[in-house]
Amino acid sequence: MEGKMTWTVADAVDYYGFPADRSKTGGWVPAALILVVEVCERLSTMGIAVNLVTYLIGTMHLPSSTSANIVTDFLGTSFLLCLLGGFLADSFLGRYKTIAIFAAIEALGTGALAISTKLRQLRPPTCGATATDCKQANGFQMGILYVSLYLIAIGTGGLKSSVSGFGTDQFDEKDEKEKAQMAYFFNRFVFFISFGTLTAVTVLVYLQDEVGRSWAYGICSVSMCMAIMVFLSGTKRYRYKKSMGSPIVHIFQVIVAATRKRNMDLHFNAGSLYEDTPENSRIDHTNQFCFLDKASIVAEGDFEKSAAGAAPNLWKLCSVTRVEEVKMMIRLLPIWATTIIFWTSYAQMITFSVEQASTMERSLGNFQIPAGSLTVFFVVAIMITLAVNDRLIMPLWKKWKGKPGFTNLQRIAIGLVMSTCGMAAAALCERKRLSVAKATGDSTAATLPISVFFLIPQFFLVGSGEAFIYTGQLDFFIIGSPKGMKTMSTGLFLTTLSLGFFVSSFLVSIVKRLTGSKDGEGWLADDINHGRLDCFYGLLAVLGSINFVVYLVCAACWYRPTKTKSADLHEMGISTSTSTAVNGSSIEENC
């Protein structure tokens, strides 16, 4: 019996519903099949996003600030919908079905976008000799474009919330070998999606500019269809984790139960609080957020009679473990909030930085580099940073400190610093570009006599920052969340990207309103050669510096890991002394 148990994964089942056989399910091969879907999703989403601003300005004839906001709103919605995808995966569909369904929706969206860019009726007429002859896209044309983009956004939201979680499901945390493989999975996950982005910003952007956008977007649709087939081919090799119900409902049950008992005194020992969770799945009580502990106080009327016997009404009485799960999610929020500004800086790399590139000298011999392809330096920076971290920093750090590389909180901190430096570099580069534009005396010139390679430092700094912060956030949110809320926590992590893009749109609108004028001048002028984009970048650098200080305070003073995660926390270099359960003394005294 013991020999048999070693070949099964306790909390996972196979396609037929039997305990998953370790030798026949899970591991790197199924995880790789799942990664294919994410690679193609990134190929499609980024292939569209990085060059969309040039299409909106050059073909749809929209102002630069409006075009930038359309791109950031599209990406923001894509990541915000990850919460919906996470909810559906945890509550109804499961991760496998969620990935399959939303991948099909994204394939449909990219196909619709290919058609919308092909049909002449869905684009405004070409501009005449003067600016007054330029007619913006009408409501119907923009409506079709929006439908296509937001079908893609829906597909992206459902996919991203489940792909990383389903990938980690293929590894058993209780097996030391597979746990080590999971640690490397996060780095390789980001590396492979960066490869998808690299293909998007080189091959796809080139096809969009030189062959036709409809062909490039058609390739995205076909690649998503192929990814779906690859994903389905591994159906019988995947490990499936049983859904534990909607985590959102669980959270509200704890809040409602604690609110109902808000007038009760917390003079109980931790041992007297209600607990019905199996011993091996319990989470020890902690002293933080004591108000929620009232949800575990047993009171009259908390139990309801049924055919199976008395059972607690979960809207009146919750177990200590259920309460601690909610506390774990609350502890994630300060780190969640302080990482939003990074993605606001990131948004500039695919909007205003691309617009900067379109005005600069992009020749490389006889080859003209597409403006959208400048983000290749951004992606290359990510891949180089991940490779160095995976092959050099992690092994050396393990030999020196006995830990597998930087902790997740340290990686997030590094990412925040690098993005702030990236915005400072962007401000200096833009100041140089504006001085050249002023010296030429012709702000409407198609190409300024300044090399586009001046933009490389900002792309490299923010790109390297993403390599650290993305892996750090993904690791932090998955490890720091309860077992039954990992999909939701992944969605929560991805909302930092969403809100980062929305904050970018908000800042652009506010700066445009406060600094603009009737003739379209200001920091974010319709013609960036008339504007002060360097001031906007400088503003982001200042906001990033302030945010980093707040992050350090939150990481040091608010976040307290739970005792059940002590092994992981030891690897992260975080003390668990703050999460010791109450023994003997009253909860009220410790609070």
UniProtKB/TrEMBL annotation:
Q: Report the transmembrane regions from the record.
A: 70-89, 95-115, 189-208, 214-234, 332-349, 369-388, 409-428, 448-470, 491-511, 536-559
Q: What is its main location?
A: membrane
One Gene Ontology MF term:
transmembrane transporter activity
Any keyword Transmembrane helix? yes
Where does it live in the cell? Membrane
**One Pfam family in the UniProt entry:** PTR2
- List GO terms (cellular component aspect): membrane
Designated name of the protein? Protein NRT1/ PTR FAMILY 6.2 isoform X1
Give the originating organism: Juglans regia (English walnut)
